[in-house]
Amino acid sequence: MIQSDDISSASSVETQSDYTSKVRNEIEQEIKRLKFLSNRGLWALSLFLIVCMLAWRDFSLLPLPDTVTAALGAPPQPRFISIMLVIYTFSAITLSLSRIMGGIEHKSSFCHVAYLTCFFLFYHFAKALDENFWAVLGAGITILGVESYRIWSFCSENITLKHEQLEHLVRTGQLPPVE
Amino acid sequence: MFKSLAGRALIPVGLAVTGFVVVCFIMLYTNIKNIIIRDSVGHATNLADTVLKSTHYAMLKSDRETLEAIIHNIGEQKGVDHVRIFNKAGVINVSSKQQEIGETVDKKTEGCIACHMREVPATSLGKMEQARTFRNRAGIEVMAITAPIYNEPLCSNAACHVHPSTQKILGTLDIGLSQEMKLATLSTIRREMIAFTIMILIITVGGVTAMLRRSVFLPMRKLSDLAEQAEGEEGITSPPARFPNELDRIASSYYKLSQKLRQIK
């Protein structure tokens, strides 16, 4: 009987140790993922700057606006594109600030680069890129700047939380109670 | 800075407000600039039409002396860079600058290519296409309008110098206007808009900072001092001063907890 109790106790210790090491691994993986994610905003900003450089050179790799408009039809008026850019900038900033407020994880930075590239292309095909380049650049830096800050602050908050959990796990063998 | 409460509250708001105001400023300025350019092209086209109407009778009568006098007087006007009339072959017949007379204009230059890009030249252009901008020899920006002189029944039937009725365009009037005043106006608008933008940013970001500092950060610091006092040997000795809103409740709770701890000790 005593022997059986010893075995059961040893197996319980082993199970507990397995559990601790499993949870510890999960937390460490999560910290790694968050550290990787925290730079996502900066990568998006860098990609946007590359697109800006191409736009500054008038998209020399693309076919001429006249060729494209002959195939696809007339582009929208530059004034209409500008109104859409203001609405988009306002919505993107509002959405980003709401996500900061709600502490929501969202990895949407790269889709903003795609939207901003579309604005550059529309202006290019409407032959109004020279006048509106700085507006798109300003909008991009603002949106991606706020998004980078949002992603970075979300990740750093969660990394701190995960480190605290790890510390508690090492000390007590259990995760801290959920608040 | 990024990890402090003030930084976390102010950086995203400051960045968003600054960026959005700057984008709106750039767009507003671009819009105003386009409107001014469109208006100035309209004015210049009207002026070219006025010159054509004024010289019409002299050209019909082949009165070269009157034509030269009109062109010379218009060319003397402040803000007019040049006025010239050239024939279908591109030879300058009359000009406000005497040295230009007899010279041939290049059909591949910016002002001419719009009509002469195809084998058969275009006979009419929109208002904006008639305008071109360049820097003259003095380095001053000039906007020039080319207005075609169309053949009319009066011209083709005139006894003095007959043009065939099949010829659509007899020549072209080219009038150049200095853009110095327009550029100065745009520069003033730009300066004023930058000043207003900076003022808006200072008021917005400064206002938010001041309000947060007064309502949140300073009381939080006082609360933090109170917490430190509570941790100390003596605890909180006197009731805390009034804190704003919810923080007042936390401060009085600290005080009461500290009092209870002292009693237990």
Structure in words:
The complex is a heterodimer of chains A (about 180) and B (about 260). With about 180 residues, chain A is mainly α. Chain A has one domain (about 1-170). Helices cover about 85% and strands about 0% of the residues of chain A. Chain A is built from six helices and no strands. In chain A, helix 2 (about 40-55) packs parallel to helix 5 (about 110-125), helix 4 (about 80-100) packs antiparallel against helix 5 (about 110-125) and helix 5 (about 110-125) packs antiparallel against helix 6 (about 130-170). The longest helix of chain A is centred in the last third of the chain and has 44 residues, at about 130-170. Chain A is elongated. The model of chain A has no long low-confidence stretch (mean pLDDT about 85). With about 260 residues, chain B is of the alpha+beta class. Chain B has two domains: about 20-180, PAS domain (Beta-Lactamase); about 185-265, no CATH class. Chain B is built from six helices and five strands, in the order H-H-E-E-H-E-E-H-E-H-H. In chain B, strands 2-1-5-4-3 form a five-stranded antiparallel β-sheet, sandwiched between helices. In chain B, a hairpin with a 5-residue loop joins strand 3 (about 130-135) and strand 4. The longest helix of chain B is centred in the first third of the chain and has 56 residues, at about 5-60. The two termini of chain B are about 40 Å apart. The model of chain B has no long low-confidence stretch (mean pLDDT about 80). Classes of the chains: A mainly alpha (about 180), B alpha+beta (about 260). The interface of A and B includes residues 90, 93, 100 and 132 of A.
